[in-house]
Design goal:
single chain; mainly beta; OB fold (Dihydrolipoamide Acetyltransferase, E2P); 2 domains; 5-stranded mixed β-barrel; 11% helix; globular; RADX; NA-bd_OB-fold; RADX protein; single-stranded DNA binding
């Protein structure tokens, strides 16, 4: 059938009601959001954002309500989608924006693709990777794996061998509220420094991964945000925290992920082959209370 592009959509969306099918690749995936309230009688009040791209640029795509439990786990970063009978809406202005791996990619930020079970009922098809043709011009997923240079509020991807993982802890989302964020601290080393990455890992929509992070697993975290506390000693309080678009992968989940082709990932795998498992196991720690950033050494400073 006749296809359209994201660039054409942005130019013509106001003058159309029905749109031609779209062929796009998923570049980023947000955590699943529950927006149910007691007074609203919605069966499945869920929402998830994806950033999708074709040869013309990148745009947000929103999956609504009952489409979320049906499609959320099937649509992964790197998945190619054929979308039919979708709606176009003006973008929600306060949405988080992931940092694209390709800084040259054009971002269409004024509108977003809305996928719903009705008005109109969207048809979603996943195209297997072996059937994707080069002449479709779909961009590859690109990453920003870092080793040590960590500017503040920068988004990046990291890979490392887990040497410490703390217990799961809870923090209130709002003061006096009843909702909690679940998170745990972890350390990971990648062979480029004696110092580990300090990672604050919030439970994303991947409970099967979050609950099984343990020492000696290969950990990949994408779209991590650098947090640097400049008020104290800056070098001692740099850590990485998950963002709304972070994805976490551990040993057993890496097969088929787009990052396996990345040079820095291949270099890390080569480094792990030079390491003694017994030596790394001696340094591994699990559980316990991990206060971070650490309090000052004496009460006067505190």
């Amino acid at each position: 059938s006749k296809l359209t592009s994201l660039g054409q959509l942005e130019m013509t969306w106001r003058s159309r009601v029905h749109f031609h099918p779209l062929l796009v690749r998923v570049l980023h995936k947000s955590r699943l959001r529950y927006y149910g309230k007691p007074e609203k009688k919605l069966d499945m009040p869920y929402q998830a954002y994806f950033e999708v791209a074709d040869g013309s640029g990148m745009m947000s795509m929103v999956l609504w309500n009952s489409l979320c439990p049906e499609w959320y786990n099937s649509i992964k970063v790197g998945t190619v989608l054929l979308l039919e009978q979708y709606a176009i809406k003006t973008s929600y202005p306060f949405k988080t924006q992931p940092t694209p791996g390709d800084s040259q990619m054009k971002r269409f930020a004024t509108i977003e693709i809305s996928l719903n079970v009705r008005d109109p009922p969207t048809k979603i098809s996943i195209i297997p990777e072996e059937m994707v043709k080069p002449d479709w011009g779909l961009p590859e997923v690109k990453y920003r794996f870092i080793t040590r240079d960590l500017p503040n509020n920068h988004s990046c991807d990291v890979i490392g061998l887990v040497t410490f993982v703390g217990r799961a802890e809870r923090a209130r989302k709002r003061e006096h509220g009843e909702d909690f964020w679940l998170y745990r601290w972890a350390h990971a080393v990648d062979g480029t420094s004696d110092q580990p990455f300090i990672l604050e890992l919030f439970a994303t929509s991947q409970p099967e991964v979050f609950e099984h992070i343990h020492p000696m697993t290969y950990l990949v975290c994408t779209q991590m945000r650098v947090v640097r506390d400049l008020t104290e000693n800056p070098s001692s309080t740099i850590y990485l925290t998950t963002s709304n678009e972070s994805q976490i992968f551990i040993t057993g989940w890496h097969k088929g992920q787009p990052y396996t082709k990345d040079t820095k990932v291949k270099n890390f795998i080569q480094w792990t082959k030079t390491q003694s498992e017994a030596d790394q196991m001696k340094k591994a720690v699990i559980g316990g209370y991990y206060p971070f950033p650490r309090p000052p050494n004496n009460f006067l400073k505190y």
